[in-house]
Design goal:
CATH architecture: 4-Layer Sandwich
GO molecular function, one term: phosphoribosyl 1,2-cyclic phosphate phosphodiesterase activity
Protein name: Phosphoribosyl 1,2-cyclic phosphodiesterase
Enzyme class: hydrolase
Helix content: 10-25%
CATH topology: Metallo-beta-lactamase, Chain A
CATH superfamily: Ribonuclease Z/Hydroxyacylglutathione hydrolase-like
Keywords: Hydrolase
EC number: 3.1.4.55
Radius of gyration: 18 Å
Structural class: alpha/beta
Shape: globular
Number of helices: 7
Order of helices and strands: EEEHEHHEHEEEEEHEHEHEE
Strand order of the largest sheet: 6-5-4-3-2-1-14
Number of domains: 1
Largest sheet: 7 strands, mixed
Mean pLDDT: 95
Length: 265
């Protein structure tokens, strides 16, 4: 265990694949399971920072995730990419604009901003022409690249990941890294992932997949990076929680909705 002080906490709001678990129309054992750790909403993260709180991604279940965890405030959102399961909760940020009495910053790459502006065009119209201001999210974009930046008392390091052919972002915050929706990690990003306490890493299922790591590929990355502990996320209904954990190395477990991870420095 690290002897460094805890400065923040990461909560995994959702740990499921794009279809979620249980999956619509499926009666497999995992989808019918009574084990709550087999119930996986779409992927997202909440970080309680020294000077506020922020999200990574906004899943379609964001309202349910935030109320489940009794989260009262969000001061910013980071995005990994603009696939539907990572952005469709954007409108649920409306309440936080009211509470802040100002815009909620959205940190993302320019291509993600373009998609969000198109998908949620009503949210980015000129406030002067809105009929009722309270019917719209109050948001503003902040473009990011690969330089670390300060956010609410934490240093955030964006990481280039490849999701099939799509370039996406992962994030390292202190000694914890979150790398979802990834099938390849470039060497320059692998270097930035050394010395981790905890790695949260994509592992869809056991079979090969063109845009996600499977379990074996994720374990190869974990063996290379040697974090103290690793959790597998973006998990499908093909991986039963208890059975899969029995097959994994001692320091690797399936992530689950509501898992809390201390961030140290």
């Amino acid at each position: 265990m690290s002897d460094r002080s805890t400065v923040a906490e990461m909560t995994l709001l959702g740990t499921g694949t794009s279809m979620g678990v249980p999956m619509i129309g499926c009666d497999c054992d995992v989808c019918l399971s009574d084990n709550p750790r087999n119930h996986r909403t779409r992927t997202g993260v909440y970080v309680k920072a020294p000077e506020g709180a922020f999200l990574i991604d906004a899943s379609p279940e964001l309202r349910l995730q935030l109320t489940r965890e009794r989260i009262m405030s969000v001061d910013a959102v980071l995005f990994t990419h603009a696939h539907a399961d990572h952005i469709l909760g954007l409108d649920d940020l409306r309440v936080f604009g009211y509470k802040r009495k100002g815009p909620v910053p959205l940190y993302c790459e320019p291509n993600v901003e373009a998609t969000l502006r198109q998908a949620f065009s009503y949210a980015f119209i000129d406030p002067a022409v809105r009929d009722t201001w309270h019917s719209y999210p109050n948001l503003e974009f902040r473009s990011i690249g690969f330089h670390p930046f300060e956010l609410l008392g934490l240093t955030v390091q964006p990481l280039r990941l490849m999701h099939g052919r799509l370039p996406v972002l992962g994030y390292r915050i202190g000694d914890v890294a979150f790398c979802t929706d990834v099938s390849h990690i470039p060497p320059e990003s692998m270097a930035l992932l050394e010395g981790l306490d905890v790695l949260v890493l994509d592992a869809l299922w056991k079979e090969p997949h063109p845009t996600h790591f499977n379990v074996a590929q994720a374990l190869d990355v974990i063996r290379t990076l040697k974090p103290r502990e690793a959790f597998l996320t973006h998990v499908s209904h093909r991986l039963e929680y208890d059975k899969t954990n029995r097959e994994l190395p001692e320091n690797v477990k399936l992530a689950y909705d509501g898992l809390r991870i201390p961030i140290r420095q």
